[in-house]
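ARCHIVE CARD
Drawer: 12
Card no.: 0347
Subject: one protein chain, sequence and derived structure
Cross-reference: see card 0346
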Amino acid sequence: MRQFLWTYWKVALGVLVLAIAANYLWAWAMGPSVTVTQARRGAAVEAVYATGTVEATVMLPIAPRITARLTDLMVDEGTNVTANQVLAQLESTDVQNSVAELDAKAAYAEGEYKRQEKLFAKGFSSTDARDQARANFNAAKAAAARARAEADFTTLRAPADGLIIQRDGEIGQLIPVNQPVFWLSCCAPLRVSAEVDEEDIPRVKPGQKVLIRADAFPGQIFSGTVQSITPRGDAISRSYRVRIGFTQEVPLQIGMTAENNIVLRETSDALLIPLTAVVQNNVWVVRDGKLLLLPVQLGAQTEREAEIISGIEADDWIVTKPLTTMQAGQTVRLHKIANTEQAP
């Protein structure tokens, strides 16, 4: 009985060893197992990425034309103003005194001129005396007009309808001539000023669609278009400035950072494969159970997928994660993954 059991176990063990050996032999003959999938159809967007800043399209400085002390502020940052609205007042006592003095001199000169006219008409005054009186009167009028203009300079007014976006003066501060007290955003909607790398700038053209995101408004995408491109680049940053205009009303504010995707090409029915399948612009595919390395032309790319413009067929089985040990012509076993598993 013992001899029978021992013989039985030896036979069973031999069969198991043969089965394992046969399985390994079959696996070796069929080659390694690779995970494959087929390309899927979907939307692809090829774009140039650029960071930028929201800014006013037109930003006007409002500065005094004379040096004077700031005595009153009528508006502040964030105030919407209308054209010719008074924004601030500068000290004007000395200027007003000059106006009064020169008006008085002009009035006296006018009276003297009229007196000389009457005397000349009666023959009691010479032509020279009359002409001198007229010249003195004109000079006095000009001086008075100039003084009134300088007095008007002490009142700062809005040159157009707009929004006060910055104020740089305080009451009591001496404001030098031409030093801005206010900055006015006016006359046009906001825009984005973005920096585009010199390698990408040849593909950027005015009129291209732009998708804009801002950290201040997560989850929202704003639309815009390329308005203009500065012809002179920055030699240090190796970039070119691109102006982007909004095509809709936006809640963005001046100074906010904006992430911009300038759309170069959109395809609604692109051939998409996992980005992990692409190795140095090549893709491993399996045809008739054997590996084949094919060069491909890439289009748009995301963090997960790549668009294939040419190089493979839609029904090809693509190796999702190629191994460095794979060789062209090698026989492999397929572990297939459905297209939907690769969709983002």
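Annotation on reverse: The chain is about 25% helix and 40% strand. The chain has a mean pLDDT of 86.
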